[in-house]
Amino acid sequence: MRAGDEAGCGVVEELTLETPLSLTGDAAAEVQVVVGAPDAAGRRTVEIYSRPARSEESWTRHASGVLAEHGGGPAADGAVFAQWPPADAEPIDVDGLYERQAAQGYGYGPAFQGVRAAWRRGDEVFAEVALDEAGADRFGLHPALLDASLHAAEGPEDDGQVRLPFAWLGLELHAAGATAVRVHLLRTAADEVAVELADTTGAPVATVRSLVQRPVPLNGVLSAARDGALLRVEWTEIQAPPEPDAAAGEFHLAHVPDTFPGAPAEAAREATLYALKLIEDALRDDTRLAIVTREAPGDLTLAPLWALVRSAQAENPGRFVLVGTDRDVPERDIRATLATGEPQLALRDGTLLVPRLVRTPLPDVPCPVAWDL
What we know:
- By secondary structure, the protein is an alpha+beta fold.
- The chain has helices at 2-6, 97-104, 143-148, 218-227, 264-285, 303-315, 331-338; strands spanning 11-17, 29-35, 44-52, 60-68, 90-92, 115-121, 124-130, 161-173, 180-189, 192-198, 204-217, 230-237, 251-255, 288-294, 320-325, 344-348, 351-360.
- Among the domains are: 79-228, Polyketide synthase dehydratase (Thiol Ester Dehydrase, Chain A); 239-341, Rossmann fold (3-Layer(aba) Sandwich).
- It has an eleven-stranded antiparallel β-sheet. A six-stranded mixed β-sheet has the order 12-17-16-15-14-13, sandwiched between helices.
- Helix 5 packs parallel to helix 6 (303-315).
- The protein is globular.
């Protein structure tokens, strides 16, 4: 967000965390935030890189996304904070919160242990979070305050996995310098939450339209920290269910045209507008929609379209599915993929693939050109 502010694009429209930054002992790292040139709509790409401090090693990309001048929706109106805490919410015992989370593999230092009180109401969690240290005025939103705001939404206990942030959609800052916040977390899917932060008067501080987390085996995370291994997204083969699923038949199939007119940037814009119309029609008609694309390897024209549909998925869980193909695929095969219940799939050479986090050795990444902020 800070880098985006320098370029007039302070809204994080989308940010995907590809590779964790593992630090051990007294290790230090140099970090670069690289913001690209604006497209026709004023959006800019953003990438985050690191390498060991005082070294000439290759840079590793940890995250990539899109910055925008304006958000995709209205700021929080504070209605959820009008009565605080909500009268029908049940208190959560926070006295042992950080001991429970340490047992699950989350080791938060003192500066990050900011949860003071919390309540639960169905899929909603309400919390009060405060900083124990000065310095909030140095940040738009203090990182420890933001991180602690997510702690009250505890995951399943003792399942041998930790959940790492994977994708942020629609992150907007409405007020800077907060030292204490009220938090509203709405779980929209098993590993996805929407987040609203307000100050102690109920005025909006920040909103996150969607934060998607991914479960990772705890032993894999520990091994990564020890061995320097990293995580990345890989399209992994799965099998379609052998029996048809009635729910798959509820989806309306929409095939995106193979080509759109104009240069690559204009073609990408036309493809995205085409998908936007499909999404708006599906929401108006209250139908479930599967968007099926066909693209050649290396063709980036449909990348903004996929980003748009992922945003729609975050706002409307279970309503939209993305299926990428490399050829014409019979409808029965498409519906077989929908029976998996996966939100994003790809059919390549007849193989069904889904995105998953996997371990990978340190990659060699060309050194990017960085801004001196």
